[in-house]
Amino acid sequence: MEAQQEQHNKSRVVKVDSLQSWDFYFNQATNQGCPIVVHFTASWCMPSVAMNPFFEELASTFPDVLFLTVDVDDVKEVATRMEVKAMPTFLLMKEGTVADKLVGANPVEMKKRVDEFVQSIRVNAA
């Protein structure tokens, strides 16, 4: 019973801590046809930090989507590669490309966009 509870409390958001881990998760998800939602954040950016619990909640709601978080100060190369210039920035990706981008801390808009993104993928896969 404790193991189940522990599993239930485990985060579904994967923290990217290097360019190598980004490449690993990005390539694995892309090869498996798994959509990705990325939160580009910074520890000093209060709107980004405020979005963390909401991002966790979204990850729990959509178990068939890979949720990644990237601290732009820790992994500058990824932020540069993805042309992230402001925090928070959220990228919705499928098949290795950006399908949608949202800049700013807007939980209502974020949920709406992720809902639409996932629905469009499920329709295309059916």
Automatic annotation (TrEMBL):
| Start and end residues of each Thioredoxin domain | 1-119
What PROSITE patterns is this protein classified in? Answer: THIOREDOXIN_2
**Pfam families cross-referenced by the UniProt entry:** Thioredoxin
Instruction: Give the protein name, as stated in the record.
Output: Thioredoxin domain-containing protein
Q: Which organism is it from?
A: Hibiscus sabdariffa (roselle)
